Amino acid sequence: MTARITHKQLEAFHTVVDLGSVTAAGDFLCVTQPAISHLLRTLEEGVDFKLFEKVGRSLELTVNGRRFFEEARLSIKAVSDIQQKAEAIRQGKLGHIRIAALPAYADGIVGSVVGSFLAQHKGVFVEIESFGMTQVIELVASGQFDLGIVALPVSNPSLQVHPWKKASVICTVPTSHKFASLGKVSLDMLNGQDFVSIGSGSPFRYQTMEFFRRLAVEPNFVAEVRTQRIALRLVEQGVGLALMDKEIAGENIHPDVKIIPIEPEMNWEFCFVTARYRKSSPILLELLDFFHEIERERGAVSTNFS
Q: Does the pLDDT of residue 138 top 70, yes or no?
């Protein structure tokens, strides 16, 4: 080759082949016919072989020209793809989202929803990590993560709170337990019962303990675990009873475990948090909308957030 091949040359060549004439290509590209002819001539000089030959009044690709056209077509497409990606980046449609979530949801609904979102947004990269409530808040407030998923209430002034959902709490019991045949379990019935608790620092643990304190309920704590899923495994083994998020229990239920509603009714509420001082990217806001859309489809949107 004696000269560098330019994108304009390839575009002119590709368009002439597609439309069948120099005149049509000039009209399509909004340039003059002599300009198209000049681009083709300099392209032939650059590749150092003939691209076209005259057959009557029309141009036909040579053998080498046809081979070159296939390569040029791929190059044109690659440039077009890059232009589309550049536009997507400009509009904030591509990017990297870092999510910090409570363990109760990080490996459950969050992974499921993010998976569906990524299937529709091929240029987006998402990280999901699980942490305790305090860590999630600190990581998002400091800007190390873009989005946090935590339980209400959240009082950190550095965070913007975005309501998400309300989750019901139920009692999980081994099928061999005397409560397994009941249609509902009153919390005061847990007095003296072997009980598996979520570890300290968990918002679910805090809310559960508050209910017990208010109702003067004193279960017999036999185990303390980090996540509700681990608690469910212990219930399967007959270690004791456990209060759990209904959705998490339903996703991980075992034949040896019975899910029973409790009274009084107990709920815990979730929200998204973002750093107040940082502007959320358009793709992050789109992900938040996607979470809400999925929740509406599931028919479980909470309207009681503050």
A: yes
